[in-house]
Amino acid sequence: MFLLTLTAVNPRVARSEPPPETFPAPVLSAPQARAYAEVLKMRPDAARAQLRAAPPTAPGTLLVQDCLSITELLVSQDASRYQATVEAQDQRLKALEKAAAPGALPAYARAEIRLHQAAAQVVFGHEVQGAWNLRQSYQQMQQVVRQYPQYLPARKTLGMMQFFIGSLPESYRWFLKLLGLPGSVEAGLHNLRLAATQANDFQLEARLILALLEETYYKKPDAALGLVETLYRQQPDNLLISYLLISQHKKQHHTDAALTAYRTRPTGPDYLSLPYLHHMAADLLLYQGQYAASLRANQQFLQQYRGQHYRKDAAFKLYLAAWLGGDAGAAEQYRRQIGSGGRTVLEEDNYAQRFFEDKLPLSKLLTRARLQIDGGYYRPALLTLNSFRPSAATPLRDRLEEPYRRARAWHLLGRPDSARLFYAQTIARAGSAPYYFAPQSALQLGYLYQAEGQRNTAKVYFQKALAYPRHEYKNSTDTKAKLALKELE
User: Fold this and answer.
1) How far apart are CA 77 and CA 376, in angstroms?
2) Quick check: 20 pLDDT over 50?
3) Contact criterion met (CB below 8 Å) for 14 and 191
């Protein structure tokens, strides 16, 4: 699955163009391809029905079976399914080794299943085993590319891993280097573009990966949203595409469109349950000030979700909905819930935990403005901010947040001069304060100057964003600043 698999390739091999094809490209059979299409639609029973028409031990069948099983595990986050999933992966790998069939597809299937196993192990807390399997998958996939350079699915997976390893902050990269997993952003993008622009069994994955990476790290939101909207029109019954449509609208502050996509998504017993959709909807409703509806959506998420990620974030959003809705008693219960469960691997959960531990009350005005900006309601947010009156007793966090929120509103309204003024004000006030407002201001100033062609000034601000030692969103901020600097080299 494109959201799960990671690996890498030798940069020299990755950059070379595939030679002219002199053999038939290995492809999935018709039943296997139809089954895989159902996996992407998140319809497991339909996928299994298609696989019954395929040879049970064929490499393509084993690969698609594993794509289905890892999708079910990681979507459900159900720890009770973990052991059976890993054991089934071991059996598929043994079957592939026993058959010892030649060709690109069997070799690719072995490396891809090994990678799926690594993903499962890391997600469910077995990091050492996961790291070892990641290394094995990397080496195997590297060999696939060397032996079958024309086989584009391998380029897709290798390119994705190459990009992610190359873009990781230094605090993570040392471990992957220790395992012998070097990264290269340039080689990764090159591989992904090859797989995204030429026909192959997994071209849709490659197109989506490339679009999402470029949207997140290279400021190309229109291309990503356009692709997802086109795919949605072509496949309105595809739950994965619907999820991506909701996510892209949400990231781009299109709250009304995101909620429409959420409410019209395909549903029913044929589809996997995807509780995270309700968590996204809760945010969207919070942006609109629909606090009771937001509470219900997050409660539904927590009732259905079996994983440990996003629990603290959900409790924090429940707190905000109750607090802004005027129910102080419920708000305090949700605040305590932040500290009682879940993990802090994700930045959203880490932010919620820091709020819980700091015990510093939030400003209702600034919180409303933040939510309005997140929702795309920029001018109402500026009106809200006009009511903010700091005093000598106002915490430093709030005195930093106010100009930062103004900067974000003006930036998103297409007023860069006003945005620059307030970003700079945020940085000047911040000093070494451990909040994300100053590093994010530096990152955004870098983007603004980069867009205007002022490369040297942009570099200064991207480097400044990297220099802040500790804040809630350091990993993502550092990754974006690092990639922006690479673009300016």
Assistant:
1) 31
2) no
3) yes
Q: What is the pLDDT of residues 324-344, one digit of tens each?
A: 999 999 999 999 999 998 888
Q: Taking Cα atoms as reference points, which of 278, 349, 323, 307 lies closest to residue 79?
A: 307
In angstroms, rounded to a whole number, what is the distance separating the alpha carbons of residues 399 and 405? 11
Give the pLDDT confidence of 99-154 residue by residue, as tens digits: 988 999 999 999 999 999 999 999 998 988 998 898 899 889 989 999 999 999 99
SS3 content of the chain, % helix, strand, coil (to 5): 70, 0, 30
Tokens of 74: 């990681």
Q: Is 354 helix (H, G, I), strand (E, B) or coil?
A: helix
Q: Which domains does the chain have, with CATH numbers?
A: 11-218 (1.25.40), 276-358 (1.25.40), 383-488 (1.25.40.10)
Structure tokens at 80: 């009770």
User: Distance between CA atoms of 272 and 75, rounded to whole angstroms?
Assistant: 8
C-alpha dihedral over 329, 330, 334, 336, to 10 degrees?
Answer: 20
Length of the chain: 489
φ and ψ of 48, to 5 deg: -65, -35
CA 197 to chain centre: 22
d(CA 242, CA 324): 30
Distance CA 319, CA 307 (A): 20
Q: Given CA atoms 240, 241, 244, 245 in this order, what sign does their dihedral have?
A: negative
Give CA angle at 1 (271, 169), nearest 5°.
Answer: 125
| Residue 20, C-beta contacts closer than 8 angstroms, at least 6 positions apart | none
How many whole angstroms separate alpha carbon 83 and alpha carbon 448?
Answer: 48
The residue among 224, 250, 261 whose CA lies nearest residue 374 is: 250
Residue by residue, DSSP assigns 197-208 as: HS--TTHHHHHH
Give the amino acid at 68: L
For the record, the structure tokens of 463 come out as 């480097």
The CA distance from 197 to 351, in Å, is 38
How far apart are the C-alpha atoms of 180 and 138, rounded to whole Å? 9
What residue has token string 């043994």? 94
